[in-house]
């Protein structure tokens, strides 16, 4: 049986073996070429990805620099107004010690003015008897006097003025009427211009409510007032500033003048 089987198997010749080996080598070569092409494509993709990463990293650094510049912007290095400057801690660590009191030191050399010019009232303070033995004192004329000026609110800071205007009539043309009110006095209104200006500042500059404005006028100035009168004062104060406001507004809108202050305009 084995001899018959061996006779049926056709032995491989040298030519067929070489052809098989050649085909195998070609297939391997083609596979290697394809693998090399794939490697080149992957290498090219890796280089592109690396360049993209480097470009993104550069953009990130630029964005960080821009963010740092935005965080550190103030009125000194940009066009921001001083009101938008952020409070920064002092760079000197000695100024940031805990429990350190602010303001000038106690008993420091004063820088206050020593006087206010011509006083409104001179009050002499004299002694008649010695405070120890009650003997009659003698004034030392050669010694200079000690002078100290003091600013104080008087008991009645606002005076009440009554304007009396008689009726006049012209015998020639028949005209009749009253004299004009002084500057700052409105016909039929009980408060003059200076007091109205103070109340206007209390509202617009001091940001006080009408109730607090009423309290200041009544208890500090000693003048009774209602919130309706305060509202009229505010309207008068606003109308008096309107011409100046419109003049400056037109000046700011002129070409070449921009960002002169922190006020926006339409």
Q: Would you write up a description of this structure?
A:
The chain has 266 residues and is an all-alpha fold. Among the domains are: 2-74; 190-266, no CATH class. Helix content is 43%, strand content 2%. It contains five helices and two strands. It has helices spanning 2-8, 14-71, 193-204, 210-220, 227-252; strands at 168-169, 176-177. Strands 1-2 form a two-stranded antiparallel sheet. Residues 1-9 have low confidence and may be disordered.
Question: Secondary-structure blueprint of this entry?
Answer:
Layout: H1 2-8, H2 14-71, E1 168-169, E2 176-177, H3 193-204, H4 210-220, H5 227-252
Helix pairs in contact: 3-5
Key structural traits:
single chain; 266 residues; mainly alpha; two-stranded antiparallel sheet; 43% helix; disordered N terminus
**Content of β-strand:** under 5%
Radius of gyration: 49 Å
Helical run tally: 5
Ends distance: 115 Å
How are the strands of the biggest sheet laid out side by side? 1-2
- Which term fits the overall shape? elongated
Helix content: 40-55%
SSE-based structural type: mainly alpha
Provide the succession of SSEs.
HHEEHHH
Main beta-sheet strand count, sense and barrel state:
2 strands, antiparallel
Count of distinct strands: 2
Mean pLDDT figure: 81
The stretches of 5 or more residues where confidence is low (pLDDT under 50) are: 1-9
